[in-house]
Design a protein that fits this description.
This protein is α+β, with helices and mostly antiparallel strands and about 325 residues long. The protein has 4 helices and 16 strands. The protein folds into 3 domains: about 90 residues, Beta Barrel (Elongation Factor Tu (Ef-tu), domain 3), CATH 2.40.30; about 70 residues, Beta Barrel (OB fold (Dihydrolipoamide Acetyltransferase, E2P)); about 70 residues, Helix Hairpins (Orthogonal Bundle).
């Protein structure tokens, strides 16, 4: 007799328990794997510690080299410091300090009045001489005023001629007793007034000519252009209006690179080792093999309370093209003999 189809599809209770236990073991296994991964993923204090590792060396080669040391080839030679950073002490040096090379006088050329730059004839790093024209401002307005002044001056001089003629006529009439003395006095006053008007107009002309001359900006020293602070067609003014977007107040910055100093900040404990006129040896960091004679030219009269230092300026005797402002330099202060 064949089995009923419904009976074949029925699941026994024993099979149900077997399948339930398999699912349980799978879930437990997954939880164990996740827990182990989380355990090893948590950072610990000792994770960054490295155990020292030694490298075997040949007999007589010296001590083992620790891990992390630079090794050259198979010989185990450590890399020595670069010779560019090594320094040699100057004989007789009592103090060594580091500072910055600066121009003794940095001049920023500014306009005398507000104007527009019409021409600038220098570039950064270009040498200039005393009196050389570096910038021109637009002077068209002052040229127009000068032309107007010329017309006023011509009118004033005509008035002087008329007053002179009237004075001569009055002198003749008074001398012949045709007119009274008052006519002569009035003529003399009119003459003086006309001459004063001429002087007034001439003074205005000289003022306009001065303003036109100020539109031509010249270098006051022999030196080098450190910065070009404006461009053509830019508005400039002798004083700032406040804020960071106002017109420029300087045109170019010029300095004499034949007159250089080193500015050094010394701590309070080192001040006793330095004196005015003391001999120094200056070594620029960019060219450590080059040495320059110098002397202490200035010791600041006031210290910096915040830094606990005092600024000392060392004058370089014979600077050359290797010395550039704002480069760092080492200064050795030599003991006075």
């Amino acid at each position: 007799m064949s089995q009923d189809p419904l009976e074949r599809l029925r699941i026994s209770s024993q099979q149900k328990r077997r399948r339930g236990s398999s699912v349980t073991w799978i879930v437990v296994g997954v939880l164990l794997v996740v827990g182990a991964a989380a355990y090893f993923a948590i950072p610990r204090k000792g994770d960054n510690l490295r155990a020292p590792v030694t490298v075997a060396t040949k007999p007589g080669a010296g001590k083992p080299v620790a891990a992390g040391s630079a090794v050259s080839g198979a010989a185990g030679i450590t890399n020595a410091p670069s010779s560019a950073t090594s320094t040699t002490r100057v004989e007789g040096s009592v103090l060594t300090a580091t500072g910055y090379i600066v121009a003794r006088e940095r001049i920023e050329i500014s306009p005398r009045f507000m104007g527009v730059v019409s021409w600038i004839g220098v570039r950064k790093g270009e040498a200039v001489t005393n009196g050389q024209v570096v910038v021109r401002l637009d002077d068209s307005e002052y040229q127009a005023r000068l032309a107007e002044n010329d017309g006023q001056l011509a009118v004033a001089r005509v008035a002087v001629e008329r007053a002179r003629t009237d004075l001569k006529r009055a002198e003749g009439l008074v001398a012949s007793r045709v007119e009274m003395q008052k006519l002569l006095d009035d003529a003399r006053l009119a003459m003086a007034s006309a001459e004063a008007s001429v002087k007034q107009v001439e003074g205005g002309r000289r003022l306009l000519q001065t303003w036109i001359d100020w539109c031509v900006i010249r270098s006051p020293v022999n030196g080098v252009v450190l910065e070009k602070l404006v461009d053509a067609n830019e508005l400039v003014t002798p004083q700032t209006f406040g804020g960071g977007r106002g017109p420029s107040t300087s045109l170019v910055a010029v300095a004499d690179l034949g007159d250089l100093q080193v500015e050094v900040d010394l701590g309070e404990s080192d001040l006793a080792k330095v004196s005015i006129g003391q001999r120094c040896v200056v070594s620029p960091e960019a060219y450590p093999d080059r040495k320059y004679e110098g002397l202490v030219a200035e010791i600041a009269p006031e210290a910096s309370r915040q830094k606990g230092t005092l600024q000392v300026k060392v004058q370089i005797r014979t600077p050359d093209r290797y010395l550039t402002p704002e480069l760092s330099a080492r200064v050795d202060f030599v003991r006075d003999r």
